[in-house]
Amino acid sequence: MKFFIIFAITSILVFGFSPIFAEPEIQTLPTDKGNLDVRLTFDEIIPGKLTTLEIDFLNSQTKEIQPHIDWSFSVSKEGQTIWGPTQLSHTSEGSLKNLRYEFEEKGNYNLEFSVEGILFQIIPTEKVTFQVKVGETSLRPPVSIDAHTSKNFYDYGESIGVNGKIKNYDENIHSDLILEYRVLDPDGVMVSKGQTVASSFGAFSFSFVARGQNFEPGGNYLIQLSFGSAESELAMYLFAGQDNIVDTTSPVILEQENIEVVAQTSDALTAITFEVLVTDNVDKTIKPTCKPESGYLFGIGETVVKCTAKDSAGNFAIPITFSVIVNPPITSIPSWVKNVAEFWCQDKIDEASFVEGIQYLIDNDIIVIPAVSERISETQDVPQWVKNNACWWSEDSITDNDFALGIEYLVKQGIIVV
Questions:
Q1: What is the 8-class DSSP label of residue 337?
Q2: How many Å is the Cα radius of gyration of the chain?
Q3: Last residue in a domain, options 134, 166, 198
Q4: pTM of the shown model
Q5: Helix (H) or strand (E) holding 344
Q6: Which residues contact 285 (CB under 8 A, 6 or more apart)?
Q7: What is the pLDDT of residues 176-204, one digit of tens each?
Q8: Of 119, 111, 116, which Cα lies nearest the Cα of 59?
Q9: Worst-scoring range by mean pLDDT, 159-163, 190-194, 290-294, 335-339?
């Protein structure tokens, strides 16, 4: 068995091209989580010979090729994996044009593609599996879609029915294919999608309701159908403007988890941004009002944020609250540094030696304390409370952060330079 691809995965990878046939097989399927569509294209498969597989990763909304995909590939037959999965690879173009594989014998194969990254961002693994028949029926005869809606004009909230038939449908050849449909709004944005299967004679039907935040009344909508390599489009007009809709349903503000961060310094404010989402049965977009708002400068401690929202019909959402918690900066001090504090506490070293020792530990990143915004003076006097803190810390009577406050004070006074 041989597997070839232009990326350097194993030592058996080579460059190559297969003959181009007039009627290639094309399958387009969504990943299991729906963030991508994957299009598989190949010519007639002959057992024992290399077959070129072309793969396009498509944005599920725009249907354009999605660049920068991290992917892997495996082949299985009769429930057993016979190749792969390959190591994770990256395609900057979003397409694989020379993925070559040798199907050794006739039968039904499953080609599984896994996606673990999009645009350099790691995502939960999404998978899509293509069923490929190898042998006499591996290259399906071309089919076409004949479909129509129950009528051309609909009112907002009405159910849209679509009926049709797959011409030249052969149950022995096409039964593994799925009819997919997408609904595009007047701006070309997908607002609904779904799947259905054809009957043994190729007939199909499905319906969807033109209501909700994705459907805006008053405009031409397009229904796109695909079945293997066959595609078709239907147009419909959605009547009734927003003024004709009696909207008594309040929007819903989605729950927001508490936000917890660590401040960079003990005396500086921290800018916190957040996004609160609102859903509504009519309005597509509702921006909530939050106090304090996103981007507000929060001080150390806990601050309660309250968010409200209102839709275009004047319906108010139930307010939500969540907390923004800004913790004091974290100080990293090795435990053995307590020996230095203990020596000073017991007057085994003088004040200057303590300052010099702490300065050395900071300069060599043995003690890491937050940066301070400014120095107050250039005095060399160390207050008694700083020494008291050192004594208490050496006895484990106060925390690392409490001891760090004394060091931070020395930095601000210019006694220790960071």
A1: G
A2: 33
A3: 134
A4: 0.37
A5: helix 338-345
A6: none
A7: 788 889 888 888 888 888 889 888 888 99
A8: 119
A9: 335-339
